Amino acid sequence: MRKYILVILLLVSTAAFAEEMNRQSNVYDDFKQFSQPQNATADEETTAQIKRYMANLLYPVDVSSFDRPDKDTKFRGLIIVLQQQMGVPPTGVLTTEQFFRLKEASRYVDGDFIGFDPTKHVFMDKDGAWASASGTGTTDASPCSGRAGAGCDIGLPINFVRIFCFRARGVCERSVATFDLKERFLFLDSGTEYEIDSWTSSQVTAKEQTPCATFLMTIDVQVEQVTIVTVPQPDLPSCSGWRPPDRPSTWKLVDGLPIAQKLSWDRMNAARALVYPPAKRLL
User: Fold this and answer.
1) How far apart are CA 196 and CA 194, in angstroms?
2) Measured at the alpha carbon of residue 206, what is the angle toward residues 205 and 208, in degrees to the nearest 5?
3) Of 27, 68, 137, 264, which has the highest C-beta tally within 10 A?
4) What are the E-state strand segments in 146-232?
């Protein structure tokens, strides 16, 4: 399913650099390849970024000096303390991966809480002409690559789902807005139509059939529950580019607020685990 990017907040400016950030190489070497500072050297700019993020984690860095850690023993010693907090080898020089971990902790240490609509809504018109539902989608399957269906990227923690069913038209329309926390992208899918199989005063069932899987939707108005069961079609050569779960999986509509709150607290606690040890009592 195609996606349209609504909001793009890039952490890095090139695809090549995004690939480099997963390597265990010296962050100074990586930044030197892609950085084009105007009023400083690449090493000074890298040191400035590292110290700014470490300072936010209450490390007593000297912000009047921008030497590399191999030329500044105190700076190197503080990086070793940070690496010990990370549980990685204390080399005194950050890898690119460790740098981005530091940057993330600097952002979340003060509690960058995620605001989210807490309401799950399941409703049917009193005349039975239409039904609707909205909320956050969760799944018991791991996210998969390729086409976005139940059990794939709509199962990411931060998403908002709207479903409208029209009895006369015989279809249910589902649209999903998904926020990728890691890449900081907001996606809106182009919508999916399910053919209605049955309609009663309290329940609607509908189906989407694809070459690789069948998606069975049930909207139960009485218990305010929406589920989508993914039934894969195994061993089809045409599905080699997109593999649904190899077993049936269930997607559910839930309230989004508890999920957003837990993510926020988990991120803050992970960030505070990297705070300068003598200063942790201040938090």
Assistant:
1) 6
2) 155
3) 137
4) 159-166, 171-180, 185-189, 192-199, 203-209, 213-220, 225-232
In this structure, how many other beta carbons lie within 10 angstroms of the beta carbon of residue 171?
14
Quick count: other Cβ atoms within 10 Å of Cβ 113?
14
Helix boundaries (H) for the chain:
15-20, 27-34, 42-56, 73-86, 96-108, 257-272
pLDDT of residue 144: 37
User: Which pLDDT belongs to residue 171?
Assistant: 97
3-state secondary structure (DSSP) of residue 71: helix
Residues whose CB is less than 8 angstroms from the CB of residue 167 and which lie 6 or more positions away in sequence, other chains included: 128, 129, 130, 196, 199
- The DSSP secondary structure of 130-145, one letter per residue, reads EEEEEEEEEESS---S
Separation between Cα atoms, residue 96 and residue 108, nearest integer Å: 19
Torsion 259-213-245-180 (CA) sign? negative
Q: Which amino acid is at 38?
A: Q
CA dihedral 129, 191, 138, 102 (to 10 degrees): -150
Consecutive sets of 10 residues in the chain, 283 residues long: mean pLDDT of each? 34 41 76 73 92 97 94 96 96 95 93 74 94 89 38 58 96 90 77 96 94 92 94 71 64 86 89 95 88
Task: Compute and round to an integer the Cα radius of gyration of the chain.
Answer: 24
The residue assigned the tokens 């300072």 is: 55
Distance, CA of 254 to CA of 108 (rounded, Å): 25
